[in-house]
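During the no-cost extension, the postdoctoral fellow (Dr. R.K.) reprocessed legacy sequence entries with the updated structure-token encoder. One reprocessed record is reproduced below for audit purposes.
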Amino acid sequence: MFFRPQVKMRKTDFNITFFILFALASGVLMGCLNTEGNLKMKGKVLDERTKTGIPWKNIIVQGIVSGNDKSEPIETGQFSTDSLGCFTYTLKKIKGAYNYNFCFVGVSEYAVTIHKMALFDLERNAKYIVFPLNKLVDLTIKLNRKSKTPVCDTLRLCWESNGVYGGSLYPYVINNYGRTNNSVGLTTAEDLIWIGGNVNSTINTKVFADKKTELTWELYRSGKRKEFIDTITCKRDLANIVYFTY
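Re-encoded structure tokens follow.
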């Protein structure tokens, strides 16, 4: 039986997360690692659904060291999968680190992902460890305001895929068509907002394939708030489009 490590998706801004992982990938370490032996590992990185290997995937390894009432991740190495998604890697065990992060750098097909594993599990399953990753697929969200009254209202949009905030999962692109001075697309830390009477917009992004994606619209009109929720499952190799007309 293959061992599946615990998966932890960080709900932070995608660009910040990617920048941190990219900086780690440079391999620049401050100071010297206090290591205590090596652990030879073998395994595979595969697509969660199809079980096929993911080739040339870059992974950054961090040891989690606890001290002064907080935990600090320290990079201990990097490795990549081969053309079949397999890997062999010698882990430098850091003194005092009993948990390790395996950070998978995000690309267009797979999101930034961190698998956390206990040292005990690594040692017990070192001969073959499987890291499953969820594939991303395209999602297009189309908004169109057809109401003529009132002259101005406000629409708020946010979405989550498999419980992960969409804005941190993958960067989105907004196209506002025919926008006039009273139609403005605003971006906040947690959602998107359109204010005005002439809204015709398209949002292009990516979400997890074959996982539930929940979209929430909040319409503020004439001093009242209405909420609309749509739950979908985006499929692979299909045009996944959601329409909202108000």
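The first strand starts at residue 6 and ends at 8. The CA atoms of residues 117 and 172 lie 31 Å apart. The remaining legacy entries will be reprocessed before the final report is submitted.
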